[in-house]
Amino acid sequence: MGMILGIPIVIFWGCPRFEIVLAMMVPLIFDGFLQKLTPYESGNIRRLITGILFGTAFIFAFLYFRRFCIRTAGMILKLSGVDPDSVEHMIKSLGG
Q: What are 7-13's contacts with CB under 8 Å, separation 24+?
């Protein structure tokens, strides 16, 4: 559900700062480790909430990773001697 909710959020409001994305992932990670290391077992409502937060944050993290890959490819192209202006144009057209 979180991944499905993340798509319209990105379209209408954009991607939040990376620190916020990481903070949205922490509850699920913490809850998972708590269940692994103790006899505690999470309930359905908590799993739903943490899953929605993590799934939404996963969409945002995917977009950050995509931008990173585009910029890295651009840097490699520049280092290999391709015209820097055309590389910058490519990066902008791909949303990097």
A: 7/59, 9/56, 9/59, 10/59, 10/60, 10/63
Give residue-wise pLDDT tens across range 5-25: 888 988 898 889 999 999 999
Buried b (16+ CB within 10 A) or exposed e, 22-33: eebbebbeebee
Res 96 pLDDT > 80: no
Domain region containing 13: 2-94
Nearest-5° Cα angle at 63, 57 to 64: 90
Residue with tokens 């290391």: 37
Torsion of CA 18, 3, 25, 67, to 10 degrees: -30
Q: What is the number of domains present in the chain? A: 1
